[in-house]
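Here is one chain, start to finish.
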Amino acid sequence: MDLNVTAHEKDVSAAKTLSQSGTDPDIKSFALNALPILSIHLEWAKSINGKVNPAAFLTYAYLDGLAEVQLSQLAQQKASNTEVKDFAQRMIDDHTQANKEISQLAKQKGATLPSDVSPTQKATLTEFSKFSGKDFDKLYMDHNVVVHTIDVVNFTQQAAVGKDAEVKAFAAKTLLTLKDHLTLAKNINDKLQASFLLSAYQDGTAEVQLSHLALLKASNADVKAFAQKMIDDHTKANSETTQLAQRQGVTLTTEMPSKLKLAFLVHMKLSDGDFDKAFMATNFALHEKDVREFKEQSQSATNADTRSFAANTLPTLMAHLEEARFIANKLIFSQ
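Its structure:
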């Protein structure tokens, strides 16, 4: 498992770099669509390794704490929302304290802890440093929802079946704080909204990534055909979004919104009919959101090009929504 963690760290780091700054369009697209699966493989490998090896669990918890502190220090500079800044300060305080306890435990166990964050965590810090204001706020809180969801799962697992009594006790005690962090992160995140172009690009990118997964895992012909249509239509829309963002000086990211990243994780574990139904349900919810946002922007966006883009893309999204509704209902009633 150590080898798997190391290998997937390299793969995820390389995929992040290529998906953002690659020069070959085909390689860039491949890296972008492989990134969610590679990231999940990395988290699974770390979770399994932490379960069987208490020293590995301490290492990953310590790394997560380091990354949380560094990202939250960045949030103190970049965030615009008061609640986000307050949350960031609590993350600095709580994770600094937790890492002190981990350091003491590791010393007792003769384990050596890393001195800096992992390559994938460093890549996230570099990516987020490009943002500020409300887009940073949303990205930072989205990220916190995801990492704390994973932390809660791993600390719950360690507290229940860990092989070292002291590490288990630490996990059980810290779990209460992490659950508080997750609840607070969700509550704050639900109040935030990224700029329209960033949100549209993130949703479109996630749609393409989810649809590539559907081509691999779906069993229903209608679902596969729908997935291919999503790849074609959202790739085209994302190209237009990128051009608009460049003209308007808006920074984009391939980071998935938290709800879609967690949905992708769930979808990875499903197959056949269960995958088909979950994929179509996710598409229905995503397109409901997109139709609402594009309709609003088509009427009220202050930038004329944005208003025109939203108006021209809206009919396609509405057609996607109706098709998603039809296929989802067909899957339900065909049981």
